[in-house]
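Entries read sequence, tokenised fold; example below:

***
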Amino acid sequence: MSPFDLSHRAAFSQLLVTERTSLMRMARRILGDASLAEDITQTLWLNIQRITDPETIKDKRAYLYRLMLNLTSDQMRKRTRGAALFDDQADDMRMADAAPTTETRIIDRQRLSLLSAAIDELPPRCREVFLLRRVEGLTPAQVAERLGITTNAVAKHVRHAISHCQTRLAEQEAL
């Protein structure tokens, strides 16, 4: 390495010291992370030390900023790839957990059986309104028209049915 190369390296290093605050601010703004910006600035210094012929670089300041942009872009790509990888893994984990356990299925079957029994206990008109509204998915107006009652009566029957079912489920869960 010639003394000429050393003076160019020294000029680069001095320029980096002078521009360090501005370069770090740029990296922090792009990356959104001060410690990561510091790491990228250190990497920038290492890259400058590895330049084989610094005398060929005419605008050293522009070169520093371009190199910093490239390093931050690389970091953002790594972050994006890592996030995509972990998102896929999270999806896989959620899929594995999506199936109910045997215990959950048994409890759900018992609750469904209790709910069915509670619905069977309802007065016939109340049961019919409830099933049309909540199981068949008809609107209150459609239920009222089909059964020849008012929409207020539909709402009253649905409230009564829900209250009755909740009471029965609560009684059984208390046991």
Remarks:
- The chain has two domains: 3-98, 102-174.
- The longest helix spans residues 60-98.
- The chain has a mean pLDDT of 84.
- The helical segments are 3-31, 34-49, 60-98, 102-120, 124-135, 140-147, 151-174.
